[in-house]
Structures
1.
Amino acid sequence: MDVLSTIGVWAWIVWLALILVFLVVEMLTGELTFLMCAGGGLVGLGAALLGAPLWLQIIASALAAVALLAFLRPPLLRRLHAGADTRPSNVEALLGLEGLVLSRVSPSVAGQVKLSNGDVWTATTDNGTRLDPATRVEVVRIEGATAVVRARAQEVRS
Protein backbone atom coordinates (compact mmCIF):
# COMPACT_ATOMS: atom_id res chain seq x y z
CA MET A 1 0.00 0.00 0.00
CA ASP A 2 1.43 3.37 -0.95
CA VAL A 3 1.38 6.49 1.22
CA LEU A 4 -1.44 8.31 -0.61
CA SER A 5 -3.83 5.39 -0.40
CA THR A 6 -3.03 5.02 3.31
CA ILE A 7 -3.76 8.71 3.84
CA GLY A 8 -6.98 8.32 1.86
CA VAL A 9 -8.12 5.44 4.06
CA TRP A 10 -7.42 7.33 7.30
CA ALA A 11 -8.37 10.82 6.06
CA TRP A 12 -11.55 10.87 8.14
CA ILE A 13 -9.44 10.89 11.31
CA VAL A 14 -7.42 13.83 10.01
CA TRP A 15 -10.66 15.68 9.19
CA LEU A 16 -12.01 15.03 12.72
CA ALA A 17 -8.79 16.28 14.29
CA LEU A 18 -8.81 19.37 12.05
CA ILE A 19 -12.43 20.12 12.94
CA LEU A 20 -11.65 19.83 16.66
CA VAL A 21 -8.64 22.16 16.32
CA PHE A 22 -10.76 24.72 14.45
CA LEU A 23 -13.49 24.54 17.10
CA VAL A 24 -11.01 25.03 19.95
CA VAL A 25 -9.42 28.02 18.20
CA GLU A 26 -12.90 29.43 17.55
CA MET A 27 -13.73 29.20 21.24
CA LEU A 28 -10.63 31.24 21.98
CA THR A 29 -11.20 33.91 19.32
CA GLY A 30 -14.97 34.20 18.93
CA GLU A 31 -14.79 35.77 15.47
CA LEU A 32 -16.64 32.96 13.65
CA THR A 33 -13.80 32.54 11.12
CA PHE A 34 -12.58 29.22 12.47
CA LEU A 35 -16.16 28.05 12.87
CA MET A 36 -16.57 28.47 9.11
CA CYS A 37 -13.31 26.57 8.58
CA ALA A 38 -14.66 23.80 10.81
CA GLY A 39 -17.75 23.73 8.59
CA GLY A 40 -15.46 23.27 5.60
CA GLY A 41 -13.74 20.46 7.47
CA LEU A 42 -17.13 18.87 8.06
CA VAL A 43 -17.74 18.87 4.31
CA GLY A 44 -14.30 17.28 3.82
CA LEU A 45 -15.19 14.66 6.43
CA GLY A 46 -18.45 13.93 4.62
CA ALA A 47 -16.61 13.54 1.33
CA ALA A 48 -14.11 11.18 2.99
CA LEU A 49 -16.89 9.04 4.45
CA LEU A 50 -18.55 8.84 1.02
CA GLY A 51 -15.29 7.50 -0.42
CA ALA A 52 -14.17 10.55 -2.43
CA PRO A 53 -10.48 10.76 -3.34
CA LEU A 54 -8.27 12.96 -1.17
CA TRP A 55 -7.95 15.72 -3.78
CA LEU A 56 -11.75 15.99 -4.03
CA GLN A 57 -12.10 16.09 -0.24
CA ILE A 58 -9.65 18.99 -0.04
CA ILE A 59 -11.32 20.93 -2.86
CA ALA A 60 -14.81 20.36 -1.41
CA SER A 61 -13.61 21.44 2.03
CA ALA A 62 -11.93 24.60 0.71
CA LEU A 63 -14.94 25.61 -1.40
CA ALA A 64 -17.31 25.05 1.51
CA ALA A 65 -15.12 27.08 3.88
CA VAL A 66 -14.85 29.98 1.42
CA ALA A 67 -18.61 29.91 0.78
CA LEU A 68 -19.35 29.91 4.51
CA LEU A 69 -16.89 32.75 5.11
CA ALA A 70 -18.36 34.81 2.28
CA PHE A 71 -22.07 34.18 2.73
CA LEU A 72 -22.82 32.97 6.27
CA ARG A 73 -20.28 34.74 8.48
CA PRO A 74 -21.25 38.39 7.66
CA PRO A 75 -24.95 38.03 8.56
CA LEU A 76 -24.04 36.04 11.67
CA LEU A 77 -21.65 38.79 12.78
CA ARG A 78 -24.29 41.48 12.16
CA ARG A 79 -26.77 39.52 14.24
CA LEU A 80 -24.19 38.87 16.94
CA HIS A 81 -23.34 42.57 17.23
CA ALA A 82 -26.89 43.88 16.74
CA GLY A 83 -27.31 44.82 20.40
CA ALA A 84 -23.84 46.31 20.78
CA ASP A 85 -23.49 49.71 22.40
CA THR A 86 -22.79 52.17 19.58
CA ARG A 87 -22.32 55.20 21.80
CA PRO A 88 -18.91 56.83 21.47
CA SER A 89 -16.45 56.30 24.29
CA ASN A 90 -13.07 57.60 25.42
CA VAL A 91 -11.82 60.52 23.31
CA GLU A 92 -14.66 60.22 20.79
CA ALA A 93 -17.18 60.88 23.58
CA LEU A 94 -15.51 64.20 24.39
CA LEU A 95 -15.70 65.64 20.86
CA GLY A 96 -18.48 68.23 20.64
CA LEU A 97 -18.96 68.24 24.41
CA GLU A 98 -19.78 71.63 25.90
CA GLY A 99 -17.86 73.24 28.71
CA LEU A 100 -17.09 76.41 30.63
CA VAL A 101 -13.76 78.22 30.74
CA LEU A 102 -12.34 78.28 34.28
CA SER A 103 -9.08 80.09 33.54
CA ARG A 104 -8.06 82.08 30.44
CA VAL A 105 -7.51 79.91 27.36
CA SER A 106 -5.52 80.97 24.30
CA PRO A 107 -3.50 79.25 21.59
CA SER A 108 -0.21 79.96 23.40
CA VAL A 109 -1.34 79.68 27.03
CA ALA A 110 -3.16 76.59 28.20
CA GLY A 111 -6.01 77.36 30.54
CA GLN A 112 -8.63 75.14 32.08
CA VAL A 113 -12.16 74.23 31.08
CA LYS A 114 -14.78 72.28 32.95
CA LEU A 115 -16.70 70.02 30.58
CA SER A 116 -20.37 69.20 30.93
CA ASN A 117 -19.48 65.67 32.08
CA GLY A 118 -17.72 67.18 35.14
CA ASP A 119 -14.12 66.68 33.98
CA VAL A 120 -11.64 69.55 34.21
CA TRP A 121 -9.22 69.63 31.27
CA THR A 122 -6.23 71.69 30.29
CA ALA A 123 -7.28 73.48 27.12
CA THR A 124 -6.09 75.63 24.25
CA THR A 125 -8.03 77.25 21.41
CA ASP A 126 -7.92 76.17 17.80
CA ASN A 127 -8.57 79.45 16.00
CA GLY A 128 -6.24 81.96 17.65
CA THR A 129 -8.82 83.60 19.91
CA ARG A 130 -8.48 84.24 23.61
CA LEU A 131 -11.28 82.95 25.79
CA ASP A 132 -11.94 84.50 29.18
CA PRO A 133 -13.39 82.72 32.22
CA ALA A 134 -17.13 81.91 32.11
CA THR A 135 -17.11 81.61 28.28
CA ARG A 136 -19.04 78.64 26.97
CA VAL A 137 -16.96 76.40 24.72
CA GLU A 138 -17.13 73.12 22.87
CA VAL A 139 -14.40 70.52 22.39
CA VAL A 140 -13.05 70.39 18.83
CA ARG A 141 -10.39 67.73 19.33
CA ILE A 142 -8.12 66.17 21.93
CA GLU A 143 -4.34 66.44 21.59
CA GLY A 144 -2.70 64.25 24.20
CA ALA A 145 -3.99 65.48 27.56
CA THR A 146 -5.15 68.84 26.22
CA ALA A 147 -8.61 69.68 24.94
CA VAL A 148 -8.69 71.98 21.95
CA VAL A 149 -11.78 74.17 22.27
CA ARG A 150 -13.57 76.98 20.54
CA ALA A 151 -16.23 79.38 21.72
CA ARG A 152 -19.78 78.25 21.08
CA ALA A 153 -21.31 80.01 18.08
CA GLN A 154 -23.88 81.99 20.07
CA GLU A 155 -21.15 83.05 22.57
CA VAL A 156 -18.76 84.63 20.03
CA ARG A 157 -18.52 88.37 20.65
CA SER A 158 -17.70 91.01 18.02
2.
Amino acid sequence: MNTLTPAATLAKKGKTPFPGESDAYRKARETLLADEIEFRRHMTRLADERRALPPGPLIMKDYRFKDANGSDVGLIDLFGKNDALVTYFWMYGPQRERPCPMCTNWLGAVNGNAADIKQRVALKILGRSSVERQLAFASERTWRHLDFVQTVGDDYANDLGLLNANGSENPALVVFKRDGDKVRLFWASEMTQEMADPDQDPRDAPDVASLWSILDLTPGGRGTDWYPKLTY
Protein backbone atom coordinates (compact mmCIF):
# COMPACT_ATOMS: atom_id res chain seq x y z
CA MET A 1 0.00 0.00 0.00
CA ASN A 2 1.38 3.39 -1.00
CA THR A 3 2.08 5.92 1.73
CA LEU A 4 0.09 9.07 1.08
CA THR A 5 1.72 12.45 1.27
CA PRO A 6 0.12 14.54 4.03
CA ALA A 7 -2.71 16.66 2.68
CA ALA A 8 -1.22 19.83 4.16
CA THR A 9 2.01 19.22 2.22
CA LEU A 10 0.15 18.72 -1.04
CA ALA A 11 -1.97 21.79 -0.38
CA LYS A 12 1.13 23.98 -0.46
CA LYS A 13 1.36 23.20 -4.17
CA GLY A 14 -1.90 25.07 -4.81
CA LYS A 15 -1.85 28.29 -6.78
CA THR A 16 -4.58 30.89 -7.22
CA PRO A 17 -5.06 31.39 -11.00
CA PHE A 18 -5.40 35.19 -10.81
CA PRO A 19 -3.00 37.73 -9.26
CA GLY A 20 -3.82 40.02 -6.37
CA GLU A 21 -4.73 37.54 -3.61
CA SER A 22 -4.26 38.63 -0.01
CA ASP A 23 -2.20 36.65 2.48
CA ALA A 24 -5.45 35.89 4.35
CA TYR A 25 -7.05 34.46 1.20
CA ARG A 26 -4.05 32.29 0.36
CA LYS A 27 -3.77 30.95 3.91
CA ALA A 28 -7.47 30.14 4.12
CA ARG A 29 -7.48 28.62 0.63
CA GLU A 30 -4.51 26.40 1.50
CA THR A 31 -6.27 25.16 4.63
CA LEU A 32 -9.41 24.49 2.61
CA LEU A 33 -7.42 22.68 -0.08
CA ALA A 34 -5.95 20.37 2.54
CA ASP A 35 -9.48 19.60 3.74
CA GLU A 36 -10.59 19.00 0.13
CA ILE A 37 -7.76 16.52 -0.34
CA GLU A 38 -8.75 14.70 2.85
CA PHE A 39 -12.38 14.69 1.70
CA ARG A 40 -11.34 13.21 -1.65
CA ARG A 41 -9.44 10.49 0.16
CA HIS A 42 -12.40 9.80 2.42
CA MET A 43 -14.70 9.47 -0.61
CA THR A 44 -12.25 6.99 -2.10
CA ARG A 45 -12.33 4.96 1.12
CA LEU A 46 -16.13 5.04 1.08
CA ALA A 47 -16.18 3.69 -2.46
CA ASP A 48 -13.75 0.93 -1.48
CA GLU A 49 -15.88 0.03 1.55
CA ARG A 50 -19.03 -0.02 -0.58
CA ARG A 51 -17.47 -2.42 -3.08
CA ALA A 52 -16.29 -4.62 -0.20
CA LEU A 53 -19.78 -5.11 1.26
CA PRO A 54 -20.65 -8.76 1.95
CA PRO A 55 -23.23 -10.32 -0.39
CA GLY A 56 -26.56 -8.58 0.08
CA PRO A 57 -29.88 -10.38 0.53
CA LEU A 58 -31.30 -12.42 -2.31
CA ILE A 59 -34.37 -10.86 -3.90
CA MET A 60 -36.90 -13.63 -3.39
CA LYS A 61 -40.08 -11.93 -4.60
CA ASP A 62 -40.84 -12.09 -8.30
CA TYR A 63 -41.28 -8.39 -8.97
CA ARG A 64 -42.76 -7.74 -12.41
CA PHE A 65 -42.11 -4.85 -14.74
CA LYS A 66 -43.19 -3.67 -18.18
CA ASP A 67 -40.48 -2.40 -20.50
CA ALA A 68 -40.63 0.00 -23.44
CA ASN A 69 -41.52 -2.89 -25.77
CA GLY A 70 -44.57 -3.70 -23.66
CA SER A 71 -43.00 -6.96 -22.49
CA ASP A 72 -43.62 -8.33 -19.01
CA VAL A 73 -40.18 -8.88 -17.45
CA GLY A 74 -38.63 -9.77 -14.13
CA LEU A 75 -35.91 -8.01 -12.20
CA ILE A 76 -33.13 -10.17 -13.61
CA ASP A 77 -34.24 -9.33 -17.16
CA LEU A 78 -33.47 -5.66 -16.51
CA PHE A 79 -29.74 -6.51 -16.29
CA GLY A 80 -29.40 -7.38 -19.95
CA LYS A 81 -25.82 -8.59 -20.42
CA ASN A 82 -24.56 -6.76 -17.33
CA ASP A 83 -23.74 -8.02 -13.84
CA ALA A 84 -24.85 -4.82 -12.11
CA LEU A 85 -28.12 -2.90 -12.37
CA VAL A 86 -28.62 0.69 -11.21
CA THR A 87 -32.26 1.63 -10.71
CA TYR A 88 -33.95 4.88 -9.80
CA PHE A 89 -37.60 4.91 -8.75
CA TRP A 90 -38.92 8.35 -9.56
CA MET A 91 -41.95 10.14 -8.25
CA TYR A 92 -44.20 10.04 -11.29
CA GLY A 93 -47.06 7.79 -10.30
CA PRO A 94 -50.44 7.82 -12.06
CA GLN A 95 -51.85 10.15 -9.40
CA ARG A 96 -49.37 12.90 -10.31
CA GLU A 97 -50.22 15.36 -13.05
CA ARG A 98 -46.52 16.17 -13.43
CA PRO A 99 -43.43 14.41 -12.06
CA CYS A 100 -41.43 15.52 -9.05
CA PRO A 101 -39.19 18.50 -9.94
CA MET A 102 -36.26 17.13 -7.94
CA CYS A 103 -36.51 13.73 -9.65
CA THR A 104 -36.73 15.55 -12.96
CA ASN A 105 -33.62 17.58 -12.19
CA TRP A 106 -31.66 14.49 -11.20
CA LEU A 107 -32.74 12.50 -14.24
CA GLY A 108 -31.86 15.36 -16.56
CA ALA A 109 -28.28 15.22 -15.33
CA VAL A 110 -28.18 11.42 -15.49
CA ASN A 111 -29.52 11.48 -19.06
CA GLY A 112 -26.41 13.39 -20.09
CA ASN A 113 -24.22 10.58 -18.73
CA ALA A 114 -26.47 7.59 -19.39
CA ALA A 115 -24.84 6.47 -22.63
CA ASP A 116 -21.50 6.30 -20.82
CA ILE A 117 -22.93 4.70 -17.67
CA LYS A 118 -24.52 1.94 -19.74
CA GLN A 119 -21.12 0.92 -21.05
CA ARG A 120 -20.43 -0.44 -17.57
CA VAL A 121 -23.77 -1.31 -15.97
CA ALA A 122 -27.47 -1.53 -16.73
CA LEU A 123 -29.44 1.62 -15.91
CA LYS A 124 -33.22 1.61 -15.56
CA ILE A 125 -35.64 4.30 -14.44
CA LEU A 126 -38.66 2.80 -12.66
CA GLY A 127 -42.04 4.45 -12.30
CA ARG A 128 -45.60 3.52 -11.44
CA SER A 129 -46.96 5.32 -14.49
CA SER A 130 -47.11 3.54 -17.83
CA VAL A 131 -43.95 3.49 -19.90
CA GLU A 132 -45.78 5.50 -22.55
CA ARG A 133 -46.53 8.26 -20.05
CA GLN A 134 -42.97 8.29 -18.79
CA LEU A 135 -41.59 8.41 -22.34
CA ALA A 136 -43.92 11.26 -23.25
CA PHE A 137 -42.41 13.38 -20.49
CA ALA A 138 -38.91 12.25 -21.46
CA SER A 139 -39.59 13.42 -25.00
CA GLU A 140 -40.77 16.78 -23.66
CA ARG A 141 -37.43 17.15 -21.84
CA THR A 142 -35.49 15.81 -24.87
CA TRP A 143 -34.10 12.92 -22.81
CA ARG A 144 -32.83 10.34 -25.29
CA HIS A 145 -30.62 8.01 -23.27
CA LEU A 146 -32.77 6.84 -20.34
CA ASP A 147 -34.58 3.49 -20.28
CA PHE A 148 -37.97 3.73 -18.56
CA VAL A 149 -39.74 0.77 -16.98
CA GLN A 150 -43.16 0.52 -15.34
CA THR A 151 -43.51 -1.31 -12.04
CA VAL A 152 -46.42 -3.73 -12.40
CA GLY A 153 -48.52 -3.48 -9.27
CA ASP A 154 -47.22 -1.80 -6.14
CA ASP A 155 -45.32 -4.64 -4.48
CA TYR A 156 -41.95 -3.14 -5.34
CA ALA A 157 -42.87 0.34 -4.11
CA ASN A 158 -44.59 -0.96 -0.99
CA ASP A 159 -41.77 -3.33 -0.03
CA LEU A 160 -39.24 -0.50 -0.31
CA GLY A 161 -41.48 1.83 1.71
CA LEU A 162 -41.89 4.24 -1.18
CA LEU A 163 -45.64 4.79 -0.90
CA ASN A 164 -46.99 6.99 1.87
CA ALA A 165 -50.38 6.72 3.54
CA ASN A 166 -51.63 9.78 1.65
CA GLY A 167 -50.72 8.22 -1.70
CA SER A 168 -47.57 10.28 -2.26
CA GLU A 169 -44.30 8.65 -3.28
CA ASN A 170 -40.66 8.67 -2.27
CA PRO A 171 -37.71 8.18 -4.63
CA ALA A 172 -35.25 5.33 -4.35
CA LEU A 173 -31.77 4.72 -5.73
CA VAL A 174 -31.05 0.98 -5.59
CA VAL A 175 -28.19 -1.06 -7.06
CA PHE A 176 -28.58 -4.78 -7.68
CA LYS A 177 -25.99 -7.45 -8.46
CA ARG A 178 -26.45 -10.59 -10.53
CA ASP A 179 -25.58 -13.81 -8.70
CA GLY A 180 -25.86 -16.61 -11.24
CA ASP A 181 -29.54 -16.80 -12.14
CA LYS A 182 -30.48 -14.88 -8.98
CA VAL A 183 -30.42 -11.23 -7.99
CA ARG A 184 -28.98 -9.75 -4.82
CA LEU A 185 -29.20 -6.28 -3.38
CA PHE A 186 -25.79 -4.63 -3.62
CA TRP A 187 -26.51 -1.18 -2.18
CA ALA A 188 -29.50 1.07 -1.59
CA SER A 189 -29.64 4.63 -0.41
CA GLU A 190 -30.66 4.59 3.25
CA MET A 191 -30.33 8.28 4.07
CA THR A 192 -33.77 8.99 5.49
CA GLN A 193 -35.22 12.14 7.00
CA GLU A 194 -34.43 10.79 10.47
CA MET A 195 -30.71 10.88 9.57
CA ALA A 196 -30.68 14.45 8.26
CA ASP A 197 -28.70 17.05 10.14
CA PRO A 198 -30.50 20.15 11.44
CA ASP A 199 -31.80 22.46 8.70
CA GLN A 200 -30.78 20.00 5.98
CA ASP A 201 -32.62 17.64 3.67
CA PRO A 202 -31.59 13.99 3.79
CA ARG A 203 -28.98 13.28 1.15
CA ASP A 204 -26.39 10.73 0.22
CA ALA A 205 -22.67 11.13 0.71
CA PRO A 206 -21.24 11.91 -1.70
CA ASP A 207 -24.21 13.83 -3.04
CA VAL A 208 -25.23 12.22 -6.33
CA ALA A 209 -27.13 15.31 -7.49
CA SER A 210 -24.88 17.50 -9.64
CA LEU A 211 -27.18 20.48 -9.02
CA TRP A 212 -26.29 20.64 -5.34
CA SER A 213 -22.63 19.73 -5.85
CA ILE A 214 -22.19 22.68 -8.22
CA LEU A 215 -24.11 25.09 -5.99
CA ASP A 216 -21.91 24.02 -3.07
CA LEU A 217 -19.00 25.62 -4.96
CA THR A 218 -20.64 29.05 -4.97
CA PRO A 219 -20.67 31.85 -2.38
CA GLY A 220 -24.35 31.35 -1.53
CA GLY A 221 -24.26 27.56 -1.52
CA ARG A 222 -27.36 25.47 -2.02
CA GLY A 223 -29.45 27.58 0.34
CA THR A 224 -32.22 26.37 2.61
CA ASP A 225 -35.43 27.44 0.86
CA TRP A 226 -34.85 26.96 -2.87
CA TYR A 227 -35.68 23.92 -4.99
CA PRO A 228 -35.73 23.43 -8.76
CA LYS A 229 -38.95 23.73 -10.77
CA LEU A 230 -40.16 22.04 -13.90
CA THR A 231 -40.34 25.40 -15.72
CA TYR A 232 -38.94 28.90 -15.16
3.
Amino acid sequence: MANIKSAKKRIKVTEAKTLKNKMIKSALKTVIKKFETALTSNNVEEAKASFKSAAKALDMAASKGVLHKNKAARKKSRLAAKLNALSA
Protein backbone atom coordinates (compact mmCIF):
# COMPACT_ATOMS: atom_id res chain seq x y z
CA MET A 1 0.00 0.00 0.00
CA ALA A 2 1.22 3.48 -0.83
CA ASN A 3 2.37 5.75 2.00
CA ILE A 4 2.97 8.95 0.07
CA LYS A 5 -0.02 11.25 -0.40
CA SER A 6 0.53 11.73 -4.15
CA ALA A 7 0.82 7.96 -4.66
CA LYS A 8 -2.48 7.44 -2.83
CA LYS A 9 -4.09 10.03 -5.10
CA ARG A 10 -2.67 8.34 -8.21
CA ILE A 11 -4.25 5.05 -7.09
CA LYS A 12 -7.66 6.73 -6.67
CA VAL A 13 -7.41 8.53 -10.02
CA THR A 14 -6.34 5.35 -11.82
CA GLU A 15 -9.27 3.41 -10.36
CA ALA A 16 -11.72 6.11 -11.47
CA LYS A 17 -10.27 6.21 -14.99
CA THR A 18 -10.30 2.42 -15.21
CA LEU A 19 -14.00 2.33 -14.33
CA LYS A 20 -14.81 5.01 -16.89
CA ASN A 21 -12.85 3.23 -19.62
CA LYS A 22 -14.50 -0.07 -18.74
CA MET A 23 -17.93 1.58 -19.00
CA ILE A 24 -17.14 3.01 -22.44
CA LYS A 25 -15.74 -0.31 -23.71
CA SER A 26 -18.75 -2.23 -22.40
CA ALA A 27 -21.21 0.15 -24.07
CA LEU A 28 -19.22 -0.09 -27.30
CA LYS A 29 -19.34 -3.89 -27.26
CA THR A 30 -23.09 -3.79 -26.64
CA VAL A 31 -23.69 -1.48 -29.61
CA ILE A 32 -21.54 -3.67 -31.89
CA LYS A 33 -23.40 -6.82 -30.75
CA LYS A 34 -26.69 -5.08 -31.54
CA PHE A 35 -25.39 -4.40 -35.07
CA GLU A 36 -24.25 -8.01 -35.48
CA THR A 37 -27.68 -9.23 -34.36
CA ALA A 38 -29.37 -7.00 -36.92
CA LEU A 39 -27.06 -8.44 -39.59
CA THR A 40 -27.84 -12.04 -38.71
CA SER A 41 -31.57 -11.34 -38.81
CA ASN A 42 -31.12 -9.80 -42.32
CA ASN A 43 -32.88 -6.62 -41.19
CA VAL A 44 -31.29 -3.96 -43.43
CA GLU A 45 -33.02 -0.92 -41.92
CA GLU A 46 -32.20 -1.89 -38.35
CA ALA A 47 -28.63 -2.75 -39.38
CA LYS A 48 -28.16 0.68 -40.96
CA ALA A 49 -29.45 2.42 -37.84
CA SER A 50 -27.31 0.33 -35.51
CA PHE A 51 -24.26 0.85 -37.77
CA LYS A 52 -24.68 4.59 -37.37
CA SER A 53 -24.73 4.29 -33.58
CA ALA A 54 -21.80 1.83 -33.63
CA ALA A 55 -19.71 4.20 -35.75
CA LYS A 56 -20.53 7.05 -33.37
CA ALA A 57 -19.59 4.95 -30.34
CA LEU A 58 -16.30 3.92 -31.98
CA ASP A 59 -15.46 7.55 -32.76
CA MET A 60 -16.29 8.55 -29.21
CA ALA A 61 -14.12 5.78 -27.74
CA ALA A 62 -11.25 6.86 -30.00
CA SER A 63 -11.64 10.51 -29.00
CA LYS A 64 -11.64 9.58 -25.31
CA GLY A 65 -8.46 7.57 -25.77
CA VAL A 66 -10.07 4.24 -24.90
CA LEU A 67 -9.33 2.90 -28.40
CA HIS A 68 -6.57 3.86 -30.79
CA LYS A 69 -7.92 5.92 -33.68
CA ASN A 70 -6.65 3.43 -36.25
CA LYS A 71 -8.35 0.54 -34.46
CA ALA A 72 -11.61 2.47 -34.42
CA ALA A 73 -11.26 3.20 -38.14
CA ARG A 74 -10.49 -0.46 -38.87
CA LYS A 75 -13.53 -1.65 -36.91
CA LYS A 76 -15.79 0.88 -38.66
CA SER A 77 -14.46 -0.24 -42.02
CA ARG A 78 -15.10 -3.91 -41.27
CA LEU A 79 -18.61 -3.20 -39.98
CA ALA A 80 -19.34 -1.13 -43.09
CA ALA A 81 -18.12 -3.99 -45.31
CA LYS A 82 -20.50 -6.38 -43.54
CA LEU A 83 -23.37 -3.92 -43.98
CA ASN A 84 -22.57 -3.48 -47.67
CA ALA A 85 -22.44 -7.25 -48.16
CA LEU A 86 -25.92 -7.51 -46.63
CA SER A 87 -27.31 -4.69 -48.79
CA ALA A 88 -25.82 -6.00 -52.04
4.
Amino acid sequence: MTKKVIKTNAAPAPVGPYNQAIAATGQMIFVAGQISLDPETGEIVGTGDIAQQTHQVLKNIGAILQAAEASLENVVKTSIFLTNLDDFATMNQVYGEYFKEDTAPARATVEVSRLPKGVLVEIECIAIV
Protein backbone atom coordinates (compact mmCIF):
# COMPACT_ATOMS: atom_id res chain seq x y z
CA MET A 1 0.00 0.00 0.00
CA THR A 2 1.09 3.53 -0.74
CA LYS A 3 -0.45 6.16 1.53
CA LYS A 4 0.37 9.85 1.18
CA VAL A 5 -1.01 12.61 3.40
CA ILE A 6 -2.31 15.60 1.42
CA LYS A 7 -2.07 18.97 3.20
CA THR A 8 -2.60 22.50 1.97
CA ASN A 9 -2.75 25.89 3.62
CA ALA A 10 -5.35 26.88 0.99
CA ALA A 11 -8.00 24.91 2.95
CA PRO A 12 -8.79 24.85 6.68
CA ALA A 13 -6.43 22.82 8.86
CA PRO A 14 -7.85 19.72 10.60
CA VAL A 15 -9.35 20.30 14.05
CA GLY A 16 -8.54 16.84 15.38
CA PRO A 17 -6.71 13.60 14.63
CA TYR A 18 -7.44 13.47 10.91
CA ASN A 19 -6.00 14.85 7.68
CA GLN A 20 -7.50 16.92 4.87
CA ALA A 21 -7.02 14.08 2.40
CA ILE A 22 -5.16 10.83 1.82
CA ALA A 23 -3.91 9.59 -1.56
CA ALA A 24 -3.68 5.78 -1.59
CA THR A 25 -3.08 2.93 -3.97
CA GLY A 26 -3.71 -0.77 -3.42
CA GLN A 27 -6.60 -3.11 -2.60
CA MET A 28 -9.52 -1.35 -0.91
CA ILE A 29 -11.27 -2.74 2.17
CA PHE A 30 -14.66 -1.26 3.02
CA VAL A 31 -15.47 -1.86 6.69
CA ALA A 32 -19.19 -1.67 7.46
CA GLY A 33 -20.36 0.63 10.22
CA GLN A 34 -19.40 -0.79 13.60
CA ILE A 35 -21.13 -0.19 16.91
CA SER A 36 -20.02 -1.04 20.43
CA LEU A 37 -21.05 -4.69 20.51
CA ASP A 38 -18.94 -7.20 22.41
CA PRO A 39 -18.08 -9.83 19.77
CA GLU A 40 -18.35 -12.67 22.31
CA THR A 41 -21.64 -11.76 24.00
CA GLY A 42 -23.35 -9.60 21.40
CA GLU A 43 -24.15 -7.12 24.17
CA ILE A 44 -23.58 -3.35 24.07
CA VAL A 45 -20.35 -2.23 25.76
CA GLY A 46 -20.44 1.07 27.66
CA THR A 47 -24.15 1.82 27.69
CA GLY A 48 -24.44 5.61 27.93
CA ASP A 49 -20.63 6.08 27.91
CA ILE A 50 -19.26 7.57 24.68
CA ALA A 51 -15.61 6.87 25.63
CA GLN A 52 -16.19 3.15 26.30
CA GLN A 53 -18.34 2.83 23.19
CA THR A 54 -15.74 4.53 20.99
CA HIS A 55 -12.99 2.24 22.34
CA GLN A 56 -15.10 -0.85 21.57
CA VAL A 57 -16.00 0.35 18.09
CA LEU A 58 -12.34 0.93 17.22
CA LYS A 59 -11.36 -2.44 18.70
CA ASN A 60 -14.02 -4.07 16.50
CA ILE A 61 -12.73 -2.25 13.43
CA GLY A 62 -9.18 -3.28 14.32
CA ALA A 63 -10.23 -6.94 14.54
CA ILE A 64 -11.96 -6.79 11.16
CA LEU A 65 -8.92 -5.19 9.57
CA GLN A 66 -6.65 -7.80 11.15
CA ALA A 67 -8.81 -10.52 9.56
CA ALA A 68 -8.12 -8.76 6.24
CA GLU A 69 -4.37 -8.74 7.03
CA ALA A 70 -4.46 -4.98 7.62
CA SER A 71 -4.48 -2.61 10.60
CA LEU A 72 -5.73 0.81 11.60
CA GLU A 73 -2.60 2.22 9.94
CA ASN A 74 -4.12 1.17 6.59
CA VAL A 75 -7.28 3.24 7.13
CA VAL A 76 -7.56 6.16 4.70
CA LYS A 77 -11.14 7.37 5.41
CA THR A 78 -13.56 7.18 8.32
CA SER A 79 -17.14 8.28 8.71
CA ILE A 80 -18.35 8.81 12.26
CA PHE A 81 -21.98 8.99 13.28
CA LEU A 82 -22.87 10.44 16.71
CA THR A 83 -26.31 10.73 18.25
CA ASN A 84 -25.15 13.87 20.06
CA LEU A 85 -22.42 16.21 18.81
CA ASP A 86 -21.86 17.24 22.44
CA ASP A 87 -20.01 13.88 22.65
CA PHE A 88 -17.59 14.96 19.91
CA ALA A 89 -14.70 16.06 22.17
CA THR A 90 -14.68 12.82 24.16
CA MET A 91 -15.03 10.67 21.04
CA ASN A 92 -12.26 12.68 19.37
CA GLN A 93 -9.91 12.15 22.33
CA VAL A 94 -10.44 8.36 22.24
CA TYR A 95 -10.18 8.31 18.42
CA GLY A 96 -6.82 10.06 18.74
CA GLU A 97 -5.51 7.15 20.82
CA TYR A 98 -5.97 4.87 17.80
CA PHE A 99 -4.80 7.14 14.97
CA LYS A 100 -1.53 9.09 14.93
CA GLU A 101 -2.34 12.70 14.07
CA ASP A 102 0.32 13.04 11.36
CA THR A 103 -0.93 9.97 9.42
CA ALA A 104 -4.58 9.85 10.51
CA PRO A 105 -7.20 9.16 7.83
CA ALA A 106 -9.49 11.72 6.26
CA ARG A 107 -12.69 11.91 8.30
CA ALA A 108 -16.28 13.12 8.41
CA THR A 109 -18.37 13.31 11.58
CA VAL A 110 -22.12 13.88 11.60
CA GLU A 111 -24.93 13.88 14.13
CA VAL A 112 -27.78 11.46 13.49
CA SER A 113 -31.09 11.05 15.27
CA ARG A 114 -30.67 7.35 16.12
CA LEU A 115 -28.26 4.45 15.75
CA PRO A 116 -28.84 0.69 15.96
CA LYS A 117 -29.51 -0.69 19.47
CA GLY A 118 -29.50 2.85 20.89
CA VAL A 119 -25.71 3.24 20.80
CA LEU A 120 -24.06 6.65 20.84
CA VAL A 121 -21.49 6.14 18.06
CA GLU A 122 -21.00 4.19 14.84
CA ILE A 123 -17.86 4.28 12.71
CA GLU A 124 -17.25 2.95 9.20
CA CYS A 125 -13.99 3.10 7.30
CA ILE A 126 -12.08 2.43 4.12
CA ALA A 127 -8.61 0.90 4.28
CA ILE A 128 -6.03 0.23 1.58
CA VAL A 129 -3.59 -2.71 1.60
